Amino acid sequence: MSEKLTPMMEQYYRIKQKYKDALLFFRVGDFYELFDDDARVASKELGIVLTSRDKKHAMCGVPHHAAYSYIKKLIEKGYKVAICEQVEEPTGKKLVRREVVRVITPGTVVEEELLTTESNYLMALFKREKVALAFLDVSTGEFFVTSVKNVDEAICEVLKYSPVECLIPESFEEVEELEKLVKNVRRIEDEQFNLKRSLEVLKDVANFQALELSEEEILACGAVLNYAKNSLLFSKPALKLQKLERSEYMVLDSTTIKNLEIFRNLVDGGRRGTLLDVIDKTVTAMGSRLLKKWLQRPLLDVTEIERRLDAVEELKEKSFVRRVLRETLEDVYDLERIITRLELGKANPKDLVALKNSLKAVGKIKKFDFQSKKLRDLVYGMNPMEELCSLIEKAIVEDPPANVKDGGVIREGFDEELDELRKAKKEQEEFIKRLEERERKRTGIDNLRVGYNNVFGYYIEIPKSKAKNLPRYYIRKQTLVNAERFTIPELKDREEKILAYEERIRILEQEIFERIRREVVRHAEKVKDSAERVAELDVLCSLAEVATLYNYTRPKVNEGFDIIIRDGRHPAVETTTKFVPNDVNLTENSRILIITGPNMAGKSTYLRQVALITILAQIGSFVPASYAVVGIVDKIFTRIGLVDDITRGRSTFMVEMLEIGRILNNATKRSLILLDEVGKSTGTKEGLSLAWAIIEYLHELGAKVLFATHYHELSKLENELAGVKNYHFRLKEENGKVEFDRKIRRGFSKESYGIKIAEMANLPKRVVERAYEILNSENVNGEVPEIVEEISKIDVMNLTPVQALVELERIVRKCRELKS
Ligand SMILES: Nc1ncnc2c1ncn2[C@@H]1O[C@H](COP(=O)(O)OP(=O)(O)OP(=O)(O)O)[C@@H](O)[C@H]1O
What we know:
The chain is an alpha/beta fold. It is 44% helix and 18% strand.
C-alpha cells in the first residue's frame, strides 16, 4: 500500500509513527485533519463527521481557528493531542514541511483557552522506602516536591492537590487507589524513573543543588520534568523547586479533608458549600489559587499566623481602603500565567498589554500605606517596573490582535523602519485608489471598482453588461454571475510591491514583538515576585472581607494546649441555616469530650465546626465565634460517618478499624481528633468495648478529642479518667411538642429520644404508641434481665485471661451502678 500513498500521507505516517499514543492534529491549510484510528476516535468523541481521504483513509477535521474548543474536549477525556503544524509557507506544489510543535496533555497545558483559573498540577509518584510526590503546574511555573511515609499519606496529598494527570512507575501496585482520585493516571516504564536522566533535566532548575533531595524525590521530579519536556513545552525549564516539609504544616489526613468538606462537598464533589467556597472572596486568579494553598497547608508557626492576623485585622478595620485596594487588585490579570507563557514563547500580543495594565495596577497598589508589618512588606516590595511598562506601552497598540502574524501589533512611531515600510505600503494603496478613479474616467464606467481578496489578489471589477470594449491592457482574471474581474499591468505591479511590503512588515513586527518578549523575560523574576505579593494581598483582603461579612472574630493563637471557643459556628452551615452558636472548652482536664444526644441534634456539625475554626485560625483567618483561643494543633484526624469500601472487599467495620488504627498510630498530644459514633458498625457490646478502649488510649496520649456517641455507657468514663468530660444535646419539649434546640450542655442526658424523633418524622400514631408501650414494659426497660442475658452470652472458654478480666471488670462495674 505504501507506494500508492501521496507524499503528504507518507509524511503523515512518518510523523504519526513518533506520536503513537497521541491523537495527531495534522495541519492542512486552514484545517487540522486526523486520519485512520485517530479520526475514528475524534469523530466519536467530538461528534464530528467521519469522511475519508482518497477513499483510503478514514478522516475528520476541525477548522484551525476553533481547534482549541475541540482539543479541550479531548484533553478533558484524558487524550493526548499532538499538534503538527506547517512550519514553512506553502509554495507551489512542493510538499510543505510539517513538524509536531506541541504535545498537549491534561497536565501540560499552558494555553489560556484550555485552562481554568485553578492550579493545574502534573504529578509524579515514586515509591521506595518513602513515597516521593512531585507536583508541577507548568502554567504558573509552580514546582514542589514532598515525601510521605506510605501510600495512605500519599493519597492524602493527592486529595489535597487534585492533580489532573499523574505519572507512576508500571510496578506501582496501589494504582486503583489513585485512579479513584485522578482521572488521568499514566503508567510509565520503570526505566523512565532513571537517576541519570533525572539529574540531567534537573540541573536546569536553578536551586536544585541547594535542596538536598532524597533519591525518590529526584526521580519523581525528574519524571514530571521529562514528561513536560517531551510535550515540547521547553528545552530548558526556567523553574524554581520548593521542597515541602510536612512537619512545617498542619497535617490534614484524607478523610479529614473529605469529611470537613474543605475543598469539595460530600453531596456532589463540587465546590458549593465547602470551606473554600465560603472564604474565597478573592478577585484575582492568583489570589484564589493561593487561598487554596493556604488551606492545603495551615501553619504551625505562631509568629507568621499572628502576622497574617494583624494584616487581616487592619484590612477589616479600614473598610474603605480595602474596597479601593480590591478594586485595584481586580485590574491585575493572571500575571503568573502571563509571565510563564512569555517565558515559554507561547504568549500573544494581548498578553503583553495585560502585563502592562497589571503592572500599572501594581504601581497603584505600591502607593497604599499600612501599619502592619505584613501589609507594609507586601506593598513596599511591589515592583511596577515603570520602564518595562512604558516600553510595552510605546511598542504595542492598546487592542492588538491575538496573533502577531495578523499584523497591526506594533504602534506607529516605535520603529523607524517599520514606519517607513508602512508608509511605503500606504502610498501604494493610495496609488491604487487613484488608479480606480483614473480607470473610471478612462473607461467611462462609473461603477468600476478595485477590490481585493486572498485568492486572486487585487482586481478591477466591472458589471457584466459594461465589460465590453475595454482597453487592450485589461486582462480577464475571473468571471462572476453579474460581473467580470480584470487586472492591468500597473495594478499587478503595485500589488507585488504591496505584498512585498506586507511580508517585510510582518517579519519586522514579529521581530520587534520577540525583542520585547525577551526584554520582559529578562525581568521575569521581578514580575513573579509582584505576582506573589498581589496574590497574598488578595487573600488577606478576602479574609478581611469574609470576617466583616460573616462577623468573624480574631482568634488568639498560641503555643498552649487549650482550644476555647465562645459562640462558635460552622462556617458553611451558618450561611444556609439560622445557626445556634455553641461553646467548646478543650483543656488539659477537659480534653476528651464525650458528646451524646439524639440523632439530628447537631453532634457532627459541632465536631466539624471545632475543626474548621482551628483550621481557619491556623491559616491566619478570623473565625466564626465571639471569642476563640486556639493552641496550635499539629494534625487533625476525623472519623465521621460510615463508609463502605466494597471495591476492596472491606466491610464498613474493617474500614473503620483501619482508620482508627491509623489515627491511634499517628496522633500526638497536639492533635485534634474527631470521632463520631465509633464502634457503631459492629455489635453493641463489642462496639462499646472498643470505643471505651480507644478513649482510654487517647486519654493516655493526651490528645484533644471530641467523641460523639450513642453509647450512653461511655459517660461513666468521666468518673474514671481525669481529662474526660460529658456533654450532651437534648430535645426541647414544650406543650408536648419536641424540637431540637441545638445547644450543647455540660453533663450527660439519660433521655432517649429515638421514638420522639420518629414521632416528629410523622410515623403513624399507632406505631409510635406501640413503641412507647414496649419501651415501658419490664423486658426492655429493666436492666437486670439485660445483664443476665449479657453474662450468658460470654463465651468463657474462648477468652484469653486478659479478655476475661476485662469482661469481669465490665460486669462488676455495671452491677455496682445498678446497685447505686
Ligand atoms: N448549631 C446548629 N444550629 C442550627 N442548625 C444546626 C446546628 N447544628 C446542626 N444543625 C442542623 O441540624 C442538622 C443535623 O445535624 P448533625 O448532622 O450535626 O446531627 P447529628 O447529631 O450528628 O445527627 P446523627 O446522630 O443522626 O448523625 C444539620 O443538617 C444542620 O443543618
